[in-house]
Protein backbone atom coordinates (compact mmCIF):
# COMPACT_ATOMS: atom_id res chain seq x y z
CA UNK A 1 0.00 0.00 0.00
CA UNK A 2 1.23 3.44 -0.85
CA UNK A 3 -0.89 5.34 1.64
CA UNK A 4 0.63 3.93 4.82
CA UNK A 5 -0.07 7.04 6.92
CA UNK A 6 -3.83 6.64 6.66
CA UNK A 7 -3.60 2.93 7.38
CA UNK A 8 -1.42 3.51 10.43
CA UNK A 9 -3.79 6.21 11.70
CA UNK A 10 -6.74 3.85 11.26
CA UNK A 11 -4.98 1.08 13.17
CA UNK A 12 -3.92 3.47 15.96
CA UNK A 13 -7.48 4.80 16.37
CA UNK A 14 -8.86 1.25 16.29
CA UNK A 15 -6.41 -0.06 18.91
CA UNK A 16 -6.99 3.00 21.09
CA UNK A 17 -10.74 2.53 20.80
CA UNK A 18 -10.53 -1.15 21.74
CA UNK A 19 -8.31 -0.29 24.72
CA UNK A 20 -10.77 2.43 25.79
CA UNK A 21 -13.75 0.10 25.51
CA UNK A 22 -12.00 -2.63 27.51
CA UNK A 23 -10.91 -0.11 30.16
CA UNK A 24 -14.43 1.32 30.47
CA UNK A 25 -15.97 -2.16 30.66
CA UNK A 26 -13.53 -3.16 33.41
CA UNK A 27 -14.32 0.06 35.30
CA UNK A 28 -18.03 -0.64 34.99
CA UNK A 29 -18.82 2.37 32.81
CA UNK A 30 -20.74 2.58 29.52
CA UNK A 31 -18.40 2.42 26.46
CA UNK A 32 -21.15 3.56 24.06
CA UNK A 33 -19.77 7.06 23.52
CA UNK A 34 -16.32 5.73 22.63
CA UNK A 35 -17.82 3.37 20.09
CA UNK A 36 -20.07 6.09 18.69
CA UNK A 37 -17.09 8.36 18.11
CA UNK A 38 -14.45 5.83 17.10
CA UNK A 39 -16.52 3.67 14.72
CA UNK A 40 -17.07 6.29 12.01
CA UNK A 41 -13.51 7.63 12.39
CA UNK A 42 -11.96 4.18 11.90
CA UNK A 43 -14.28 3.44 8.98
CA UNK A 44 -13.47 6.78 7.31
CA UNK A 45 -9.73 6.29 7.67
CA UNK A 46 -9.80 2.75 6.30
CA UNK A 47 -12.12 3.65 3.39
CA UNK A 48 -10.02 6.73 2.61
CA UNK A 49 -6.87 4.61 2.48
CA UNK A 50 -8.51 2.10 0.17
CA UNK A 51 -9.86 4.80 -2.15
CA UNK A 52 -6.44 6.47 -2.29
CA UNK A 53 -4.78 3.19 -3.27
CA UNK A 54 -7.35 2.52 -5.99
CA UNK A 55 -6.91 6.05 -7.32
CA UNK A 56 -3.11 5.66 -7.39
CA UNK A 57 -3.39 2.41 -9.36
CA UNK A 58 -5.81 4.00 -11.84
CA UNK A 59 -3.51 6.99 -12.31
CA UNK A 60 -0.58 4.66 -13.02
CA UNK A 61 -2.62 2.76 -15.60
CA UNK A 62 -3.78 5.97 -17.27
CA UNK A 63 -0.20 7.24 -17.37
CA UNK A 64 0.99 3.97 -18.92
CA UNK A 65 -1.78 4.08 -21.55
CA UNK A 66 -1.04 7.73 -22.31
CA UNK A 67 2.66 6.99 -22.83
CA UNK A 68 1.79 4.16 -25.18
CA UNK A 69 -0.56 6.23 -27.31
CA UNK A 70 0.75 9.79 -27.34
CA UNK A 71 3.75 9.96 -29.63
CA UNK A 72 4.83 6.34 -29.40
CA UNK A 73 2.28 5.06 -31.86
CA UNK A 74 2.85 8.06 -34.13
CA UNK A 75 6.59 7.35 -34.18
CA UNK A 76 6.05 3.65 -34.81
CA UNK A 77 3.61 4.33 -37.65
CA UNK A 78 5.94 6.90 -39.20
CA UNK A 79 8.96 4.59 -38.94
CA UNK A 80 7.13 1.64 -40.45
CA UNK A 81 5.64 3.78 -43.23
CA UNK A 82 9.02 5.21 -44.15
CA UNK A 83 10.58 1.74 -44.08
CA UNK A 84 7.85 0.40 -46.38
CA UNK A 85 8.23 3.34 -48.77
CA UNK A 86 12.01 2.94 -48.82
CA UNK A 87 11.67 -0.79 -49.43
CA UNK A 88 9.32 -0.12 -52.32
CA UNK A 89 11.78 2.39 -53.79
CA UNK A 90 9.38 5.30 -53.49
CA UNK A 91 11.71 7.27 -51.22
CA UNK A 92 15.36 7.09 -50.27
CA UNK A 93 16.77 7.76 -46.81
CA UNK A 94 19.20 10.46 -48.00
CA UNK A 95 17.46 11.90 -51.01
CA UNK A 96 19.58 11.90 -54.27
CA UNK A 97 21.16 10.11 -56.20
CA UNK A 98 17.80 8.45 -56.96
CA UNK A 99 14.97 10.36 -58.52
CA UNK A 100 12.69 9.53 -55.58
CA UNK A 101 11.86 12.34 -53.16
CA UNK A 102 13.64 12.70 -49.85
CA UNK A 103 12.02 11.18 -46.75
CA UNK A 104 11.12 14.53 -45.19
CA UNK A 105 9.55 15.65 -48.43
CA UNK A 106 7.63 12.41 -48.82
CA UNK A 107 6.17 12.78 -45.30
CA UNK A 108 5.20 16.39 -45.88
CA UNK A 109 7.57 17.84 -43.28
CA UNK A 110 9.19 21.20 -43.97
CA UNK A 111 12.72 20.99 -45.25
CA UNK A 112 15.39 22.30 -42.90
Description:
- The chain is an all-alpha fold and 112 residues long.
- The protein has two domains: 4-69; 72-106.
- Helix content is 74%, strand content 0%.
- It has four helices and no strands.
- The protein has helices spanning 4-27, 32-69, 72-88, 103-106.
- α1 runs antiparallel to α2.
- The chain starts with a helix and ends in a 6-residue tail after the last helix.
- The model has no long low-confidence stretch (mean pLDDT 76).
Q: Which strand-content bin applies to the residues? A: under 5%
- Total discrete domains: 2
Order of helices and strands: HHHH
Helicity level: over 70%
Low-pLDDT sequence parts: none
Provide key terms for this protein:
112 residues, mainly alpha, 4 helices, rod-shaped
Topology:
Layout: H1 4-27, H2 32-69, H3 72-88, H4 103-106
Helix pairs in contact: 1-2
Short description:
With 112 residues, the protein is mostly helical. It is 74% helix and 0% strand. The chain is rod-shaped.
Amino acid sequence: MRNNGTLVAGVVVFVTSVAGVVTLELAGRDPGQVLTLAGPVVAALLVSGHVSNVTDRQNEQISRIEKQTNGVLDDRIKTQTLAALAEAGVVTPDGPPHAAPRLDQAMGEPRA
